[in-house]
Design a protein that fits this description.
CATH class: Alpha Beta
CATH topology: TIM Barrel
Order of helices and strands: HEHEHEHEHEHEHEHEHH
Structural class: alpha/beta
Shape: globular
Radius of gyration: 17 Å
Strand order of the largest sheet: 1-2-3-4-5-6-7-8
Helix content: 40-55%
Distance between the termini: 60 Å
Number of helices: 10
Number of strands: 8
Number of domains: 1
């Protein structure tokens, strides 16, 4: 297994320490799903105080990396016919993300049928000289990846494996368990208010990723519109 770039890991951890990672991922094929809009979202998020960015897609990453030195968590999403794993499932994805300018490469680390095992993906990230983030769903996922030498453990997939029963609340208990074991945790998944994001930091997370509540105009608008509609009907 290729060792992690310790110098870069130290730098990235310092840059993200107790900070916000803004996930600038527009709704697929929506009005905001254009490279120039993603770049604008990213720059606006940095102006607002984000410490890092999570960006999907090679063209988007290249464009954002060209205008900022902020840490970029890069991913590629795929819809595979033989696996439910969507986030950076292939070794070739890792190489492409590194070439595009992502210094942190995230991949799905859940215990599901997958085209490439997590050990190979982690090794590929380290071979590229990048830092790895494991998008996990369970305590066991995170412990395994930390044991393999993955720098960041994300709660990204917690609550999302059963698409019909996704909880409303973020999984703070999972964050707390990992932190208690000494893992470097990025809290992600349903941290859709400032209060929830603050709770993650208080629970010991190294950073918090927020997406829809910042960058998905359709979702934010729907929250308000639905609430207003309910009030009008009451």
């Amino acid at each position: 297994m290729t060792p992690v770039n310790l110098s870069l890991e130290k730098t990235i951890r310092a840059q993200l320490h107790k900070g916000l990672i803004a996930s600038c991922q527009p709704v697929d094929k929506g009005p905001m799903d254009k490279v120039e809009h993603v770049v604008a979202m990213a720059l606006a998020a940095l102006v607002g105080g984000a410490a890092g960015l999570r960006i999907e897609g090679l063209n988007n990453i290249r464009a954002v990396a060209a205008v900022t030195n902020a840490p970029i968590v890069g991913i590629i999403k795929r819809n595979l016919p033989t696996s439910p794993v969507r986030i950076s499932p292939f070794v070739e994805d890792v190489a492409a993300l590194a070439e595009a300018g992502a210094r942190i490469i995230a991949f799905d680390a859940t215990d599901r049928v997958r085209p490439v095992n997590v050990e190979d993906l982690l090794d590929a990230v380290h071979q590229q000289g990048c830092i790895a983030m494991a998008d996990c769903a369970s305590y066991e996922d995170g412990k395994k990846m930390a044991g393999l030498g993955c720098s960041f453990i994300g709660s990204t997939m917690s609550g999302y494996l059963d698409v019909d029963n996704t909880p409303d609340e973020p999984d703070l208990v999972l964050v707390e368990r990992w932190v208690a074991d000494g893992l470097c945790v990025i809290a992600e998944g349903r941290y859709n208010s400032p209060e929830r994001a603050a709770q993650a930091i208080k629970a010991g997370a190294a950073a918090v990723t927020v997406g829809s509540a910042i960058t998905r105009v359709e979702h934010i608008t729907a929250w308000f519109a639905d609430s207003i509609c309910q009030a009008a009907q009451s």
